[in-house]
Here is the input.
Amino acid sequence: MGATSPPLTIWAVSDGRAGIEAQALGLAEAVARLRPAEISVKRIAWRWGLGRLPWRLIPPAALAERLPDTLPDIWIAAGRATLPLSTRLKGRTFVVQTQDPRAPLERFNLVVPPEHDRLAGANVFPILGAPNRLTPKRLADELAAFPDLSTLTAPRVAVIVGGKSKAHDLPRAHAAALADRIAAAVRAAGGSLMLSFTRRTPPAARAAMSARLGDLPGVIWDERPPNPYFAYLAAADVVLVTEDSTNLATDAAATGKPVYVLPMPGHSEKLTRFHADLRARGLARPFEDRLESWTSAPLAETDRAAGELIRRYDAAQAQRGRNSA
Here is the structure.
């Protein structure tokens, strides 16, 4: 790439759900840390309820909002809603898909799935966990916006709670029992709590955990903006996350801080493999009613994937130049 080349144009494409969008945007931002780039966020929705159909049956004309005619240099997409477009754009832009697209791999320039999906192919680059937006700078910036967190008594324990999914649930009784175990561990450590829920946390579970943890030193997010999620991770000495989410555990592991995984009713073979991989690399441990400290290198898989993306993009551009010569 010449010194006077214009910045890359990158679209981060998803259906707008926070966890899905974070994967596409996180990978785009990692690419921009390696090479000048202009990032645009695009959110996909389909008319007439067609989004529920298999991707092959959804025509691009059914887009709820038309995309610009000029495509970017790099299209980074995440989630099922993007597949009717991602699978049709190779050759017009460099198409990158996160997660397992469950579509023919040859339709993409690069696929970046989690290792626990066990997906393989010439254009597949598996990573541990999922792409994310967490960087040391972002952690520092977010913590600066919540300075009171730094005054909490150490060890500061961030507890990030997921909820209902296809594989897991968080009924009130389990949430209450889990909260009691967390409270006992925080008290034994003499620390403070930073508690946050996600959109998937059932209201009954949220209420039960808030009631049982509310008398601990610390703070419970009241759902009013701004969201302190990244600030909690930045301020934490220890992070606890529920086992239902790849994104939550990936973000926590990217801090390099001790991570404990909280059990939930249900089972996912893929998530079981993921948590086993985290344990094998010393990045996380199951929660066993006590809080200890250990050190590990921050998980930096998003940066590793960005490097591979740039390598393959440059190779594709060079090949295109040879073909047109």
Q: What stands out?
A: The CA atoms of residues 176 and 211 lie 9 Å apart. The chain has two domains: 8-128+301-324, 136-286. Residues 8-128+301-324 form a domain with the Rossmann fold fold (CATH 3.40.50). The chain has a mean pLDDT of 96.
